[in-house]
Predict the structure of Pyridine nucleotide-disulfide oxidoreductase.
Amino acid sequence: MQRIVVIGAGQGGLQAAMSLRQEGFAGAVTLIGAEPGLPYQRPPLSKAYLKDGDGARLDLRPAAFFDKNEITLVSGVRAERIDREGREVHAGGTVYPYDHLILATGTRNLRPPIPGLERALDLRTLEDAARLRGELARPRRIAIIGGGFIGLEFAAVARAAGHEVTVAEAAPRLMARVLSPELSARFLCLHEGMGTRVLLGRPVSAVTDEGITLADGSGIAADLVILAAGVVPNVELAAEAGLDVANGVAVDGELLTCDPSISALGDCASFPDPVTGARIRLESVQAATDHARHIARRLMKGAGAPYAAVPWFWSDQADWKLQIAGLAGPGDESLALGPDAVLRLRDGVLSAVETVNDAKTHMQARKLLASPNPPSRAELEACGFDLAALAKERAAA
Ligand SMILES: Cc1cc2nc3c(=O)[nH]c(=O)nc-3n(C[C@H](O)[C@H](O)[C@H](O)COP(=O)(O)OP(=O)(O)OC[C@H]3O[C@@H](n4cnc5c(N)ncnc54)[C@H](O)[C@@H]3O)c2cc1C
């Protein structure tokens, strides 16, 4: 294999290029990214960056890194077409031949069919965040469409800076897609305690010059509306090339598409959950980077065990760090260990652990969930639900 091309120069695309070099790939690596500049981290865009505005600190690697590692970074150029037969990527008038292609095209904001939505601002790219930061320079009445992680992180920063903030969420609770009802309720208290108005079960039906209108006809006055209603995977390039798509570019347990010369990773890829076998798509730094490492290892060393990394995620809201280890399904049982830790169980077996400001328990949970037989309820009960003690006991056994 001589030439590897990566489309998408975000968190996962860059990691793939770096991991290929770390695994000893000596051929040409080309990283094509639609955004201008160097690859950067997205998580601080809804957190520290809104406060400090320090864009340079977000760069994942300095420019010199790319020269030193002979990674050709083609930034500000969108890949327009994949020619699978000719094994070429067409981008910005140039043709990039490949022996293996890695798709790391990420996601873009979901745009529900809400009249006037063009008035709302996005928070996905550094450019979006820079614009929003500018908007926060004077007092604002802000309406946020969506009570998920990004909407709430933005709400916490904006409220702490003294703006009037309303969050309108269509679901009956916050972060409902991935969080237990117990911690949804805890975070509702946090945001309401900060003075944010949180409207649950209240879908937005229009965005107007005056603010937002809710489905029940009521209006919320706002001079700044933020769209944070989830994302959709960027799959068009793959679909047009005839690759299978199923809520993301469909890959197998080796993160390989139906074309053995093309892999996909991160936010844009749907892959079999190593625990349940169901097809899932994760939006996290962990998934993007672990996928990238797995693909690089497979390309250099050949297929080994299928991808099986334990998912984990974090979100910073005010001074609360939420951490989730594992992946709970909507029907999973919750077992609160206290106000700041919730165990999730599927069929009596630990599926996820949610914690607030408790990095130690989070790390123990990741270890336990990584074992081939995660703890059962009986095992957890026997050790008084003390994850550290259980991890120790298992290590000694
Ligand atoms: C505001 C915000 C806060 C977040 N906070 C957290 C957090 O706290 N914790 C966490 O784990 N995750 C967080 N995330 C999610 C995390 O950033 C993503 O899961 C991660 O970046 C996914 O990496 P990726 O490489 O799959 O996609 P991305 O990093 O999104 O990169 C995809 C890149 O592909 C480019 N691209 C798309 N199509 C083309 C094309 N045709 N040609 C060339 N380039 C193309 C895009 O422009 C983009 O730059 C956050 C995301 C946002 C937006």
The first strand starts at residue 3 and ends at 7.
